[in-house]
Design a protein that fits this description.
The complex is a heterotrimer. Chain A is of the alpha/beta class. Chain A is 38% helix and 28% strand. Chain A has a 6-stranded mixed beta sheet, with helices on both faces. Chain B has a single domain, classed as MetI-like fold, CATH 1.10.3720. Chain B has 8 helices and no strands. Helix content of chain C is 78%, strand content 0%. Chain C has one domain: MetI-like (MetI-like fold, Orthogonal Bundle). Chain C is flat. The C terminus of chain C is likely disordered. The chains are: A alpha/beta, B mainly alpha, C mainly alpha. Chains in contact: A-C, B-C. The interface between A and C is medium-sized, with 28 and 27 residues.
Chain lengths: 258, 220, 218
């Protein structure tokens, strides 16, 4: 069992002339909780999206649990991963999106049970049981048969978390999951994430603007700027004594806004 | 019997006849569309009237005409109206029927356009003491019309493609002309295919023109 | 009037049958054409575009006449019954318009839905049938209803290729009894009723499919 759960090695991602990820290196240990902060539009989400392989990278390799996922070995070298290889890699990762992306024509239970049936081959009954447990865990047992449109933003996001967990991932990605929520609804989502981290062994990567949460929950905070991790450290180190000038500017701007 | 797929010589022979018929058809379309543009606007304005006994019947008539086939409406104008003293020639009945049918579609398009004019514009016109006629003509209509030009253009094309229905009340437009040639010479493939191609060429050309008009009219 | 009604209703039944059959054909063609337009093979794309442009750009009556008068002759030598010509002609015509409706309906499914399904590792076919298609179908209903009513009105033209639909029967009755006003008016009313029935049933269908998609019952 490797100690490193996620490795970004020299990962580069370009959109036309724009380089969003620039030879990015990042190591995440098993069960580590990493918060990624930085200016808007700097490409933090892209970091998570290429890890989930929603988009392909242009250079570099991403490894999960000791094996490459964006590429696969062939004849002693690494080539771009086939779809089935990617799916194997994705099975270890779960993702929660900023805009929830719940399936609107399905209830909370159906949303959570759908993927285990189609991707893991569980029977509908087993999947429903698992889904019910997970919805209970996120505090929505009584909303099982509600449709997304009948739920508040915070409730929808919690269903989204349960849905991702139904696939039993080892790594959970949170892409600005509270940014689309009214302030008073953020708390319920953040407390679910906190409990998740405390009660289960999950490696977590969070792109977030919630500095307070990052400070008290994360094991490590990374400041992302211009395609790279400009600075990283424990919350005390990064928030308390930032070394990098850009980090300092960013933190000052964010704290002023509070 | 010439079993060739397409007799080009024959096609060339009948071309002038078909061209004449297509010009006739285009003429009918343009006249009917002009009427529809005006009458449709009238219908749209009446439908927006705040007087229930005006807006409701108008809305019902528009819905009724839009939901029923043009063919029956033409039969009505050509065969039924004479019983009530209104005798129309096939051409007049056809053109009026086409115009009436499409003014109901056009009325809905105008409605969308008029609804799209911000309420503030109406209020500004009222505040400036512009009479309703002036308000409509100089303030509201120019803003209502610009975004709906593509939709109007599409109905022009649709109307053009509906002209063959007039053949059912003996108007000798392009389709009937082609059919007549066919029944006289027993060669159907050339006239009907050519008629089809004419429709295609003209619809596509007008569609391109409408798109050009759209970009030209785009608000600065 | 009441003694004329049975024959008119007979015609109306034929109209309904043709509408239903042509509609099924049209939906299938619209779906295939929309798919072909985005396929990787350029011949398929080209063929789909050709089909759509031809059947949208030419007149419905011309298409019906072509199928009815030209196909029986050499070199095609295919004689189809008026019923078949009606269903195929209407299906092809409305299917071409339907392709654009389909395309729009699929495009309106938010990209986030597909990404969520990918993130959950759903197999592509499941993703399509369980997530994308249900949402696309709901999107397609409003414009689809309009097309369906256009189809209904288009069926009146099949009377001109001797098919005994509602319009044909109306004409028959007028020629026999000369009570043109009554009969044509009754015919208009029957078409109107059919059109509003389509409207109503589509709206009900949409409501059923949309449970959850609309601003819910909170």
């Amino acid at each position: 069992m490797t100690a490193l759960m996620v490795r970004f090695r020299g990962v580069t991602k370009r959109y036309g002339p724009l380089t969003v990820l620039d030879h990015l290196d990042l190591d995440v240990a098993r069960n580590e909780k990493v918060a990624i902060i930085g200016p808007s539009g700097s490409g933090k989400s892209t970091l998570l999206r290429v890890l989930m392989m929603l988009e392909d990278i242009d250079e570099g390799v991403i490894e999960v649990d000791g094996a490459p996922i964006t590429h696969m070995p062939r004849d002693g070298t690494l080539v771009r991963a086939s779809e089935s290889w990617k799916r194997q890699g994705r099975s270890k990762i779960g993702m929660v999106f900023q805009s929830f992306n719940l399936f609107p024509h399905m209830t909370a239970l159906q949303n959570t049970a759908e993927a285990p049936v189609s991707a893991l081959g569980l029977s509908r009954r087993e999947a429903n049981e698992r889904a019910a447990e997970l919805l209970d865990m996120v505090g929505l047992a009584d909303k099982r048969d509600h449709y997304p449109s009948q739920l508040s933003g915070g409730q929808q996001q919690r269903v989204a978390i349960a849905r991702a967990l139904a696939m039993r991932p080892q790594v959970m990605l949170f892409d600005e999951v509270t940014s689309a929520l009214d302030p008073e609804l953020c708390g319920e989502v953040l407390s679910v994430i906190r409990r998740l981290g405390e009660e289960h062994s999950l490696t977590m990567l969070m792109v977030t603007h919630q500095m307070g949460f990052a400070r008290e929950f994360a094991d490590r905070v990374c400041f992302f700027s211009e395609g790279k991790i400009a600075e990283q450290g424990t919350p005390q180190q990064l928030f308390g004594a930032p070394q990098n000038e850009r980090t300092q500017m960013f933190l000052r701007a964010v704290m002023d806004a509070v | 019997m010439n079993a060739a797929l397409f007799d080009w010589q024959f096609a060339w022979q009948i071309l002038p006849e078909l061209l004449r018929a297509s010009l006739y058809t285009i003429g009918i379309t343009l006249v009917a569309f002009a009427i529809a543009l005006v009458f449709g606007l009238l219908l749209a304005i009446l439908r927006r009237s705040r007087l229930q006994w005006v807006s409701w019947p108008v809305a019902s008539v528009i819905e009724f005409i839009r939901s029923t086939p043009l063919l029956i409406q033409l039969y009505f104008l050509y065969y039924v109206m004479p019983e009530y003293g209104l005798i129309l020639s096939a051409l007049t009945a056809g053109t009026c029927g086409l115009a009436l049918h499409y003014s109901c579609y056009v009325a809905e398009v105008y409605r969308a356009g008029l609804d799209g004019v911000p309420r503030g514009q109406w209020e500004a016109a009222k505040a400036l003491s512009l009479g309703p006629w002036h308000a409509y003509r100089n303030i509201v209509l120019p803003q209502a019309v610009r975004p709906i030009v593509p939709a109007l253009g599409n109905y022009l094309i649709a109307m053009f493609k509906d002209t063959p229905v007039l053949s059912a009340i003996t108007v000798v437009e392009l389709m009937l002309q082609a059919k007549n040639i066919g029944s006289q010479t027993f060669r159907y493939i050339e006239p009907i295919t050519m008629a089809g191609l004419f429709f295609l060429i003209i619809s596509v050309s007008v569609a391109l023109l409408v798109r050009k008009l759209e970009t030209h009219l785009r608000m600065p | 009037m009441t003694e004329l009604l049975p024959l008119l209703l007979q015609g109306a039944l034929v109209t309904i049958q043709i509408t239903a059959l042509a509609a099924s054909l049209a939906v299938a063609l619209a779906f295939l054409a929309a798919l072909a337009k985005v396929s990787a093979w350029s011949t398929l794309r080209w063929a789909a575009n050709l089909y759509i442009e031809i059947f949208r750009g030419t007149s419905l009556l011309v298409q019906l006449f072509w199928l009815y008068f030209v196909l029986p002759l050499p070199p095609f030598n295919m004689t189809l019954t008026p019923y078949t010509v009606a269903v195929i002609g209407l299906g092809l015509n409305i299917g071409a318009y339907g392709a654009e409706v389909m395309r729009g309906a699929f495009a309106a499914v938010p990209r986030g839905q597909i990404e969520a399904a990918i993130a959950l590792n759903m197999p592509p076919l499941h993703r399509f049938f369980r997530i994308v298609l249900p949402q696309a179908l709901v999107n397609a209903i409003p414009p689809g209803t309009n097309l369906l009513i256009e189809l209904l009105k288009g069926t009146s033209l099949v009377s001109l290729i001797t098919l005994a639909d509602l319009t044909f029967r109306a004409n028959q009755l007028v020629q026999a009894t000369f009570r043109s006003g009554e009969i044509f008016f009754a015919t208009l009313v029957l078409y109107f009723i059919l059109a509003q029935s389509i409207n109503l049933s589509m709206r009900l269908l949409e409501r059923r499919l949309r449970r959850g998609l609309t601003h819910g019952s909170m």
